[in-house]
Amino acid sequence: KAGVTQTPRYLIKTRGQQVTLSCSPISGHRSVSWYQQTPGQGLQFLFEYFSETQRNKGNFPGRFSGRQFSNSRSEMNVSTLELGDSALYLCASSPWSSGANNEQFFGPGTRLTVL
Amino acid sequence: QQQVKQSPQSLIVQKGGISIINCAYENTAFDYFPWYQQFPGKGPALLIAIRPDVSEKKEGRFTISFNKSAKQFSLHIMDSQPGDSATYFCAASGANDYKLSFGAGTTVTVRA
Hints:
Shape of chain B: globular
Number of helices of chain B: 0
Largest sheet of chain B: 6 strands, mixed
Number of strands of chain A: 11
Oligomer: heterodimer
Shape of chain A: globular
């Protein structure tokens, strides 16, 4: 099976702009999660979607949003970019329908640099 | 507030030695404890995971030990190799969390 794919792999934006990142999960996986990784804060959970519904959301401002499509592909959007948004954004795919089936498999990430 | 505390922050081990990384948690609702390995420029890769109904799980040179009463779990890397040099993250989740809570990470360097 092909792994999780994320596009683009690298992005450079300036403050105030917005950005959209894309994630394609492993075939058959219906859960997609997003995480932000920074040297200072580590890996922090952004949100999780299953069958186009957001089931959980982390402690991030409303500038961070996401969605999931009927084919399980997901996008996340960050509006009004700030310097502190520079990070590696990771997408994780899981078959996680409920309960115990919560193995998560990560993509390579999108490296966002905000200037 | 970090729900999973990981130590040490970094460690250096000689080739063939044992690397030990420890994690502790408070949330008794957690019932899934994975370990991830991450190389520079790559996403985290699932290494091994354990659930609270067992106290130990071994896969090749990697072993998880789990102490439910102490709310602690650890990763042991036996016969460490230079290719094991990476950052290791412990994590935890509950059945209805739909998220992983990560430790801060441990950078392991294996000297040849």
